[in-house]
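ligand=iron/sulfur cluster
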Amino acid sequence: MADDSKLNAIQTNYLLDDAWSPVARFRLLSRGINNNTRLENYSQVTGDRACLACGNCVDACPVVKENVGLVFDQNQRTSMALENHVQDECRRCYRCVNSCPQVGKELKEYVSGFRRVEKIVHMLAAFTIISLAATGVTHSHYADALGGFEANLLKYAHRTIGVISILLPVLYYKLDIKHFRRTVKKVFSWGESDTQWFRNSLSHIFSAKSDKKIVRYEFNPVQKIWYLFIMSLFPLLYLSGLGTMFMGKAESAGLITPKLFHMVFALSFDLMLFIHVYIKFIREWFKTSFRMFRNYQETGSFVFTRGKL
Ligand code: SF4
Ligand code: SF4
């Protein structure tokens, strides 16, 4: 981080961990327009850090895309408008900061690395969960059809990946204790705002006249339940997996075995994972496809045009 950007690391970290659009404040922490930025020497704008109303941050923001769609009105394509669109639903993806021409390069580099450990652990968790499901299901259903070598290979791959998944929270704790603590603290903090969130969401679902919305802010109650679900199910999977390793004989004697529990836990985990993937990705693809289809009906083109959304 460069000293001349007057970047205060503590203040910057605070801004990045706050669930509020960070781009305007990062613009102000930057050095602003440089003399060399223009062909002519506009010395009066040197150091200017004002919003250019280019709308890059608005176009880049996933919350705007989801809640508002494309924004054509120039008044609504500024950092202030972005804050209004997003409010406390910011997901801390920092795409707005990275897309802003007024934010300095050193700040963008800092922001890009700020949640790197979280992202790597999340990616590894996704990889291990999918691999565990694939190896577990294949071994469970097709072990007889496979040769002995292949079946053993699958079995040991499943166990090895299981051990790797146990180590992921340790990795997260070791490499980024601050965000590890932040996550745990948020997940276990429950209060009146959560009750209100459920009330508003139910009102939105069951009352056609309701002006309430389902707000997907960071660590909303459903997201917290998802984290709690993962935290509680993983130990159950480990224990039932260990039981399966040591109680094979009980299974052949026709008893209810840890393997049965292991499979039930794994199945419920896979179902919840599918819902998670649906909410995060598939639902957005459906919404975008629907918007394109509606645009096609209105304009005869799949390309969104001004004022048609
Ligand atoms: S969700 Fe991402 S792009 Fe949108 S305001 Fe928050 S950090 Fe910026
Ligand atoms: S990306 Fe453009 S609109 Fe957004 S804050 Fe930066 S200059 Fe303003």
